[in-house]
Automatic annotation (TrEMBL):
Name of this chain's protein: All-trans-nonaprenyl-diphosphate synthase (Geranyl-diphosphate specific)
Record organism: Alienimonas chondri
Biological classification of the source: Bacteria, Pseudomonadati, Planctomycetota, Planctomycetia, Planctomycetales
Cofactors required: Mg(2+)
Gene field: sdsA
Matching InterPro entries: Isoprenoid_synthase_dom_sf, Polyprenyl_synt, Polyprenyl_synt_CS
Family of this protein: Belongs to the FPP/GGPP synthase family.
Length: 353
């Protein structure tokens, strides 16, 4: 992916519409192919994980079931459970603990998304209305809580160590999101501060997802650490790509509200790089625009991001982190699962949804 290849922003009226289905999103063939190969290798385990997920969320209360069924209508990429299962397969054999933990990490992820969409004022997620826009923020807060508590209720069936590891990762996610909220409107945010936020809100969960796959396949300490670092690097690359999509992606394709980083005054890597590349006067103008972003801020910023190379440079950093993730797997024996982990790391940068 390079800046020239990034999809141009669609007119606002188009971007605000959700595409009716995932098939309409038409992800590039490579993405579809990668996911198909993942399903070929671990499809049975993923299906088991989904059954565990659904069983855990069983409820006799219609008020709960309505929201749960709405959220279940569209599933995401299932990146985190895939990481747990592939890491397990790459380090040994996939077992029931992997399947359960795969469901746990996806549940924590789903909880963070339900809450994140309240924080970001986002109306569309996974091509459908977000919980707070379909119901109200109170329902979204409580349903997110419901997912969090079920995640730990389920993790407790594995062991205390898994609960601790997932608890530590979830703590880091919350700290990352809280820090990001705290830094809203800070046009002087540094790259180090940005990476600390991303390390918490995104990479902590991808790291523990891969780590637990290795742990429960009986991997030695060095291998567990390698998988953990792999998940962390992949998570950072993935979030940089997500931040690029927020600025230059197309909503109908990505399937969620975009532009919220700007409207919520959250400085992301491409904008930090732009600010630091512009001459003093223009940099000040940018800060003024970021302090009170107009409706067309996204369209106005795109040519600047391209001209200064800020976009390219953020893409390059994401690629470097994906390459670092791949390098973490050097010592693992060759296997289909390892090859898919390598391709997943590269996909995290190229993704268009
Ligand atoms: C979205 O995660 C939140 C980020 C960390 C950027 P995903 O892009 O993995 O969301 P789904 O699960 O596929 O919908
Ligand atoms: C990711 O941040 C949210 C979490 C990791 C909890 P974003 O706010 O960028 O995620 P999207 O873009 O809404 O999916
Ligand atoms: Mg968001
Ligand atoms: Mg985002």
């Amino acid at each position: 992916m390079n800046a020239a290849a990034l999809p141009p922003p669609a007119p606002t009226s188009v971007r605000r519409e959700a595409s009716p289905s995932r098939s309409a999103a038409n992800p590039s063939e490579t993405e579809a192919q990668l996911l198909a190969e993942v399903v070929e290798l671990i499809g049975g385990d993923l299906a088991a994980c989904e059954r565990i997920y659904a069983d855990e969320l069983a409820s006799a209360h219609p008020a709960v079931r309505d929201v749960r069924d709405h959220v279940a209508r569209y599933r995401g990429k299932r990146l985190r459970p895939i990481l747990t299962l592939l890491a397990g397969a790459a380090c040994g054999e996939v077992n029931d603990k992997h399947r359960t933990l795969a469901a746990v990490v996806e549940m924590v992820h789903a909880a963070t998304l339900v809450h994140d969409d309240v924080l970001d004022g986002a109306d569309v997620r996974r091509h459908v209305a977000t919980v707070h826009s379909r119901w109200n923020p109170r329902t979204a807060v409580l349903f997110g809580d419901f997912l969090f508590t079920h995640a730990f209720h389920l993790a407790a069936t594995v062991d205390a160590a898994a609960c601790r590891a997932i608890g530590a990762a979830t703590n880091a996610v919350c700290e990352g999101e809280l820090t990001q909220i705290h830094e809203r409107g800070n046009a002087d945010l540094t790259e180090a501060e940005y990476f600390a936020i991303v390390g918490g809100k995104t990479a902590a969960l991808t790291a523990v997802s891969a780590e637990l796959g290795a742990v429960h396949a009986g991997a030695d300490e060095a291998t567990v650490e390698a998988l953990r670092s792999y998940g962390e690097d992949l998570g950072v690359a993935f979030q940089i790509a997500d931040d690029l999509l927020d600025l230059v992606g197309e909503e109908g394709c990505v399937g969620k509200s975009l532009g919220s980083d700007l409207s919520e005054k959250k400085l992301t890597l491409p904008l930090i790089r732009l600010r630091d590349r512009l001459p003093e006067g223009e940099s000040q103008q940018l800060k003024t625009l970021l302090a009170d972003p107009p409706a067309d801020a996204r369209e106005r910023l795109l040519p600047l991001l391209q001209r200064t190379g800020a976009l390219e440079s953020a893409v390059a950093t994401a690629r470097e982190r994906a390459a670092a993730a791949v390098a973490r797997l050097d010592e693992l024996p060759d296997s289909d699962a390892k090859r898919l982990l390598v391709r997943l790391a590269r996909f995290s940068v190229r993704r268009t949804f």
